[in-house]
């Protein structure tokens, strides 16, 4: 499901202002997350990021995956 995610994007609307890298997003601003791109980033998955490797999610490896690295059906508060 990482390679072919059923949910390719997700969005969030902020209730409070948010400062990201010195840029301020006002309350009510909607931000779109490209989940498909996140699931294919070499930075997180390595040079073999296009390969199907179920062992990435084996019990001994699951702790290596961060909360927002693999966003199957979205993440965070609703």
UniProtKB/TrEMBL annotation:
Instruction: Tell me the domain of life.
Output: Eukaryota
Q: Which GO terms describe its molecular function?
A: heme binding; iron ion binding; monooxygenase activity; oxidoreductase activity, acting on paired donors, with incorporation or reduction of molecular oxygen
Family, according to the entry, reads as follows:
Belongs to the cytochrome P450 family.
Name-wise, this protein is Cytochrome P450
* Organism encoding this protein: Dreissena polymorpha
């Amino acid at each position: 499901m990482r390679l072919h995610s059923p949910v390719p994007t997700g969005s969030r609307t902020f209730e409070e202002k948010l400062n990201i890298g010195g840029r301020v997003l006002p309350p009510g601003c909607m931000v779109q997350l490209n989940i498909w791109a996140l699931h294919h980033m070499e930075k997180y998955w390595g040079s073999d990021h296009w390969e199907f490797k179920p062992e990435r999610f084996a019990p001994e490896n699951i702790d290596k995956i961060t909360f927002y690295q693999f966003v199957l059906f979205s993440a965070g508060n609703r």
